[in-house]
Amino acid sequence: MTTPASLPIIRFSLREVCQTASANHLVAYTATLILTPKTSNISIQIASRQPKNSEPDLLELALQATREGFTEVLTPLGLGANASITQLILHPVDFSSFHQRHYSAQYLRAALVNAGIIET
After folding, report:
1. 46 neighbors 85 (Cβ within 8 angstroms)
2. Mean pLDDT in the chain?
3. How far apart are CA 116 and CA 67, in angstroms?
4. Structure pTM?
């Protein structure tokens, strides 16, 4: 399945867990991105999350960090995206904006390499 501009739909599942004596972080979700050409607009909708009653501020931080990670990768390519995030896990203690952004960019970059859109 492709977008009208022949750009593939990108899907990936992200799950990074770090538990150490000094710091913990958890970043987990599944993403589907419909790439859009010649735009830097990136819209993201959270389709499902755990827990369902997670704090609104935490949800906003996760959304912002994810968008920043996607923007870091897509903007230099002249691409935008309409993204749907499912199975987003928001842990009030182990959430890290830095890691949310970092892994979002890393996993999206890898998915674009796998799709043949960019080279390593």
Report:
1. yes
2. 90
3. 22
4. 0.90
